[in-house]
Structure formats: structure tokens, C-alpha cells
From TrEMBL:
Keywords: DNA-binding, Transcription, Transcription regulation
InterPro entries: Class_I_gatase-like, DJ-1/PfpI, Homeodomain-like_sf, HTH_AraC, HTH_AraC-typ_CS, INH-QAR
PROSITE patterns in the record: HTH_ARAC_FAMILY_1 (PS00041), HTH_ARAC_FAMILY_2 (PS01124)
Presence of the UniProt keyword Ribonucleoprotein in the record: no
Protein name as it appears in the record: DJ-1/PfpI family protein
Organism the protein comes from: Pseudonocardia alaniniphila
Length: 325
């Protein structure tokens, strides 16, 4: 029986806490019981009130929880800047971390880990909105900007809110393998590993032009039909620009050329097909607008840093190799 202690405190994000709690609870139930004991604790054993005003019932104080702790999880909070200075809360966090085999923080909970020195010299991540803040406040931490979750030694951090579910699934897989984890994901109706990382918020979202940009309709058309005819000559005709002027507008507003933008959209389309189907690579290349499997491989490797085959392989599990968590 692995004890999972989740720390509730006033102002925490309720889903940061309850999402992982449900993952461990469901894993225990599907396994027939006896693998996880899930305990929501607070500093003094009293119920707490979440950031959204929901009351979170707790089982006990952290001190009253008997025995060793396997996993100690800290939810995030929109009030992280203030709570980084909350010494009573940090003292409880230190105590729990000292007792635990591994420590995990969801979303802005990473700032609380950093405040007690647990991110020193480690890799970490947090909600995409706070990545710059994390890097600025903890310069000795290597802030990873794309992963949904990061594990370094016994310390784990993850992106915002629902990413706590992704992290908890990864921890379950490390403990009990992919078969049980897959059952948990199916029961909860979530991805075993969600498509993409924090940079997954699509090429279109990463390259937002100004509101009145003449490129908006062109960009939408490319995303809607990646396999369409998007040669520069065709795009310039749609926009009513010369090819040279179109290139200048792309560079000014998006920082990339039209050709590179089309390639990024097609790689994103291929990535989604790789994640969602077992179609052969030549079919995926065609559907994504690539001329051949080799063209797919070249573009995919350039944009993603790995081959289509290797990318597909890693999406068969949560992405955490057994025994590394």
C-alpha cells in the first residue's frame, strides 16, 4: 500500500488537488484495492477553502498521518506570489517532502517547491503563463517550457490544472505499468498521454497576427486544410499581394516565411494523426500534405527533433519509462 498525501490549503486550485486524487483512487479500485491509500491532509487537520470558494474536506493533519509517505502532492494556486512567503504553509511542505519518497507539484505549486529549495539545480515546469516568472525567481532551476510534466530525481512538476491528471497517470504507470494506467485513463475518459506538450496550443495559436491582419483568413484556410495547395504563388493570389510583399508581411507579423508556416501546420497535422491512428506513414504524409514519407520524415525531424516513428512509439504510454519515477 503506497500512501499518497495531497496537501490542501486555503486558496489552492481545487482541480489541481482532486484530479490527481481521483487518478490514484480509481487506480486502487480497479486493482482491487490495497495499492494506494489516498489522503487529503492540511496543516492543522481542518477543512480548507479553495481559490474558487469550494470547501475541501480533509482526513487529518499531515502530522497525524501515520507511516511513510510514498507520494506527497502540492496543488497550485493563483495566489502563489503571496503564499511563497507563507512560512507556516512552507513548514508543512518541508515536513511532508522530508517524509516522502517523491514530491509532486501541480501548476503554480512549483513556486512553493522552489521556495523550500526543492527545485535547486533541477529541471521543472509550470503553467505556460508562469514559465517566465519561474525562471526569474529560481535562476538555479532549468525551466522546461514545452513538457506537460517533468521529473527530475524525486521531484515532479507539471503544467496547469488538468496536467495534474497527466502527471498522476505517469506516476501510476511507473508504479504499476501501462495496463492499469490505460484502464484508469479509459475509466476517467482522458488521454493516457495527451497530444503534444504545452507548445501544443497549435501553430495557429503560437503565431497570432494582429487582429486586423490581412493574413488571418489565409492562416485559417491553411490550418483548415493542411493538405491543400498552399504554394506561395497560390497564397499571394488569395491575399492579393505579390509574393515578395506576402513574404514581408509574414516575416513582420509572424516572424517566419509562408513556406515555413505551411510546413509547421503540416507537421502539426501529421503529429495529430500519429497520435490518433495506426495509419501507415505514407497515408499520414498524404493526409498532412507531404509529398512522400521521406518528406514527412525530414520536416517532422526538423520541427519536432525526432522521427515520426519514434514519436508514435512514445505515445503508447504516458511517456514515463517504468522504474524512472
Amino acid at each position: 500500500m503506497r500512501t499518497v498525501a495531497l496537501l490542501a490549503y486555503d486558496g489552492a486550485q481545487v482541480l489541481d488537488l482532486m484530479g490527481p486524487a481521483e487518478v490514484f483512487y480509481v487506480a486502487d479500485q480497479l486493482a482491487g484495492g490495497g495499492i494506494y491509500g489516498v489522503h487529503i491532509v492540511s496543516a492543522d487537520g481542518r477543512d480548507t477553502v479553495s481559490a474558487s470558494g469550494l470547501r475541501m474536506g480533509v482526513a487529518s493533519s499531515l502530522d497525524d498521518l501515520d507511516g511513510p509517505i510514498d507520494t506527497f502532492l502540492i496543488p497550485g494556486t493563483p495566489h502563489w506570489a503571496r503564499l511563497m512567503e507563507d512560512e507556516p504553509l512552507l513548514a508543512v511542505l518541508r515536513s511532508g517532502a522530508a517524509r516522502a519518497r517523491r514530491v509532486a507539484a501541480v501548476c503554480a505549486g512549483a513556486f512553493l517547491l522552489g521556495s523550500v529549495g526543492l527545485l535547486e539545480g533541477r529541471r521543472a515546469t509550470t503553467h505556460w503563463l508562469f514559465l517566465d516568472d519561474l525562471a526569474e525567481r529560481f535562476p538555479a532551476t532549468t525551466v522546461e517550457r514545452n513538457p506537460i510534466f517533468v521529473g527530475d530525481g524525486r521531484v515532479f512538476t507539471c503544467a496547469g490544472v488538468t496536467a495534474g491528471i497527466d502527471l498522476a497517470l505517469a506516476l501510476v504507470e511507473a508504479d504499476h505499468g501501462p495496463d492499469l494506467t490505460r484502464q484508469v485513463a479509459q475509466f476517467l475518459v482522458v488521454f493516457m498521454q495527451r497530444p503534444g506538450g504545452q507548445a501544443q496550443f497549435s501553430v495557429r495559436m503560437r503565431t497570432q497576427p494582429p487582429a486586423r491582419s490581412p493574413l488571418r483568413e489565409i492562416l485559417d484556410a491553411i490550418v483548415a486544410d493542411p493538405a491543400g495547395d498552399h504554394r506561395v504563388a497560390v497564397l499571394s493570389e488569395r491575399a492579393g499581394f505579390s509574393e515578395r510583399h506576402l513574404a514581408r508581411v509574414f516575416l513582420r507579423e509572424l516572424g517566419i516565411t509562408p513556406t515555413r508556416y505551411v510546413e509547421q501546420v503540416r507537421v502539426e497535422a501529421a503529429r495529430m494523426l500519429l497520435e490518433a491512428s495506426d495509419a501507415p506513414l505514407d497515408t499520414i504524409a498524404r493526409r498532412a500534405g507531404m509529398s512522400s514519407t521521406e518528406a514527412l520524415r525530414r520536416s517532422f525531424t526538423r520541427e519536432m527533433g525526432t522521427t515520426p516513428h519514434a514519436y508514435r512509439q512514445r505515445f503508447r504510454t504516458t511517456g514515463v519509462a517504468e522504474g524512472t519515477v
